[in-house]
């Protein structure tokens, strides 16, 4: 289980996260939505321990990852997979080497076991004959799937996705959503998915939370999200430039 408790993150005078609280139960997929710059990626990076919060705590299986020993943090990292916004594959490595990377670092598998596991994971995400290719030879959707294969290779209990469908065509986006659902059902993983893509959020999430001005302003099931009258959520899910959420376009229009 993941528990985020009164999490604050400040860069100088800028308060990005202002007291975030939520829980993700085992086996659940939580989607975090919110407009650009509201701190979704910063929140995810705090949860996986890539950056330290200003205050507050993140518990993963009872371990406070913001304040634990290096050994406890390493043990927690072995349980978590991270799919970065831009896939973040290592450009100089082949797809095989990319997927094998975590297995070499975090497991005691021998060469043959690594090879079998890499093939199994690439098959799971629907990629064929790509082992010897470099990331630059793959399309955006294939890169996302390769990044997913890398994240699931060492069988993590938790997977964190940062905008897994951004930049993909609608069909590929839907295929990635299906893949996230399959991973939850087949591997029983617990996931947090940061996304702008409401079609995907409605499809994959058990619960949705919305960040606004550094706070959680809404929490509910996809059905509740569709029905809510919360004006911030309504504006976001309807993709309207009119409403409480200020956008660059609002500012430009105000000046006319
Ligand atoms: N290292 C940093 N120093 C100062 N400010 C930062 C730093 N990293 C992020 N920020 C600021 O934190 C805010 C939240 O950024 P974040 O990347 O989490 O937004 P986001 O909600 O994920 O946006 P998007 O949906 O566009 O990816 C932004 O205003 C950003 O400028």
Automatic annotation (TrEMBL):
| SMART domains per UniProt | AAA
Q: Which SUPFAM superfamilies match?
A: P-loop containing nucleoside triphosphate hydrolases
CDD domains reported for this sequence = ABC_Org_Solvent_Resistant (cd03261)
Q: Which residues form a coiled coil?
A: none
Keyword Nucleotide-binding included in the entry's annotation: yes
Give a yes or no for keyword Nucleotide-binding in this entry: yes
List all membrane-crossing ranges: none
Keyword annotations from UniProtKB, A to Z: ATP-binding, Nucleotide-binding, Transport
Q: Which InterPro entries match?
A: AAA+_ATPase, ABC_transporter-like_ATP-bd, ABC_transporter-like_CS, P-loop_NTPase
Protein name, please?
Ribonucleotide ABC transporter ATP-binding protein
Q: Which Gene3D superfamilies match?
A: P-loop containing nucleotide triphosphate hydrolases
Name a GO molecular-function annotation.
Answer: ATP binding
**What region holds the ABC transporter domain?**
2-238
